[in-house]
Specification:
Largest sheet: 2 strands, antiparallel
Number of helices: 9
Structural class: mainly alpha
Low-confidence stretches: none
Helix content: over 70%
Oligomer: single chain
Number of strands: 2
Number of domains: 1
Shape: elongated
Strand order of the largest sheet: 1-2
Length: about 260
């Protein structure tokens, strides 16, 4: 009877599977739609396990051998988890672009205090921010961008080979640049509301100086809300198209597609 030691079993197929699961599972943990707080933990875990099971035979040739020392094994696992989390954080930043737009829209429209539970962020958010955030995640799956993101997660093995050390300096630089770009694009998408809101507040300020007996800001607040909702309904399709283009171009730029 042939017997196998635990080391031989782990170094055969179990270790490559667990190593692939470490990176892919960390990425799916922050994946748009799948990594949301309202998705049951078991669903996310089963999806990551099944996907890792399908992909690890394809990725076995790029994986290193099982280290003999515990310290080396710990560093390898931490490195794979870091790469997966880095990819997931980049996607979260890109989704956060449209949520930043929603926060700016809420301030300009006068709905910054109208809060609702945002399932994507698992906390209270302004109505426009929660709506745009959920609409963005929905459009990712409707337009097929989820396949692009899964491909990007697999292509991390080309950018960050499992046998090499990840360039943490470059990763931090990319993350910092994407944070700045996220805020800039979010403000640009909300530019119509900023311009209209600025013009409205300038006119109200002049009128308030001329008619100091009446609190015009309170009187015209319903007009501000209704006008802002009309502008929002008129431009929401354009805002989502601009955001989708930014999302697609950013992912393609990261992976040089």
């Amino acid at each position: 009877m042939t017997t196998y030691s635990l080391a031989e079993a782990l170094s055969g197929h179990i270790f490559p599977f667990l190593l692939v699961f470490t990176r892919l599972g960390a990425g799916f943990m922050l994946f748009p739609g799948l990594g949301e707080s309202f998705v049951p933990v078991r669903v996310r875990l089963l999806f990551a396990l099944l996907f890792s099971f399908l992909m690890f035979p394809v990725l076995m040739h790029v994986l290193p051998a099982m280290p003999e020392q515990i310290a080396d094994l710990s560093r390898l696992i931490a490195k794979e988890a870091l790469v997966g989390l880095f990819f997931g954080l980049l996607l979260r930043l890109l989704v956060g672009t449209i949520e930043t737009t929603g926060s700016i829209v809420a301030v300009q429209v006068g709905l910054s205090n109208a809060m609702i539970l945002n399932p994507a962020m698992a906390k209270q958010s302004a109505l426009p921010s929660a709506f745009l955030g959920m609409a963005g995640v929905t459009l990712i799956f409707l337009t097929g961008l989820d396949h692009l993101l899964i491909r990007g997660l697999i292509d991390t093995y080309k950018i960050f080979p499992a046998k090499d050390q990840p360039p943490t300096g470059d990763m931090l630089e990319v993350y910092a640049q994407l944070v700045a770009t996220t805020f800039t694009v979010g403000v640009q998408i909300a530019a119509p509301f900023i311009v209209v809101g600025l013009m409205l507040f300038v006119v109200l300020g002049i009128m308030q100086k001329l008619i100091q007996q009446v609190q015009l800001f309170l009187v015209l607040l319903p007009l501000q809300i209704w006008g802002g909702l009309f502008l929002f309904a008129s431009t929401v399709n354009i805002m989502m198209l601009v955001w989708l283009r930014h999302f697609d171009e950013s992912v393609g730029r990261i992976f040089a597609w």
